[in-house]
Design goal:
The chain is mainly α. It has helices spanning about 5-20, 25-100, 120-125, 130-135, 145-155. It is found in: Cell membrane; Membrane.
Length: about 160
């Protein structure tokens, strides 16, 4: 930017005073100040816009890099899964052939279509929790009204 020292500003002010005159100099100075402020705001806006566009381009580059890395990881994982699945199927088939050669082919067979696993009884599961643990943990065995709870925990009256 242009470097203005005190001596240059004083010289410009003296010339402006002679050329413009003392009556109109304050109005002209005010107008020039407003124009300089607008110019500075415009330059600041342009700088901010350029910075935003540069940051946006950097973010787009980072986004593409992350997407490429994610795609590579996805491909690697899917390849490993396919390879492992193939190895497991091969091992399962070999195990089935070994079991058939030993006469235990029924052990690896699928369960019959009518088979249903037993349902779990939630009451049995709940009864498996010891009573002392339920009392200590504050599990309520019976419903109690608010007034009954207050009466239960009210300190005894002095006699």
């Amino acid at each position: 930017m242009i470097d203005f020292g005190f001596d240059k500003i004083a010289l410009i002010g003296a010339v402006a005073l002679i050329v413009i005159g003392p009556e109109r100099l304050p109005k002209v100075a005010r107008t020039v100040g407003h124009l300089m402020g607008k110019a500075q705001r415009y330059v600041a806006d342009v700088k901010a816009e350029v910075n935003r566009s540069i940051e946006l381009e950097e973010l787009k580059k980072m986004k593409t890099e992350f997407e490429d890395a994610a795609r590579n990881v996805e491909q690697t994982v899917s390849n490993e899964i396919h390879q492992t699945t193939g190895e497991l199927n091969q091992a399962w088939d070999e195990l089935g052939h070994q079991a058939q050669s030993y006469g235990a082919g029924d052990a690896l067979a699928e369960p019959p279509l009518g088979y249903k696993p037993p349902k779990k009884n939630w009451r049995v599961k709940r009864a498996a929790v010891p009573q002392w643990y339920r009392q200590r943990a504050g599990v309520r065995a019976h419903a109690q009204s608010g007034a009954a709870r207050v009466a239960r925990f009210r300190p005894p009256k002095p006699r």
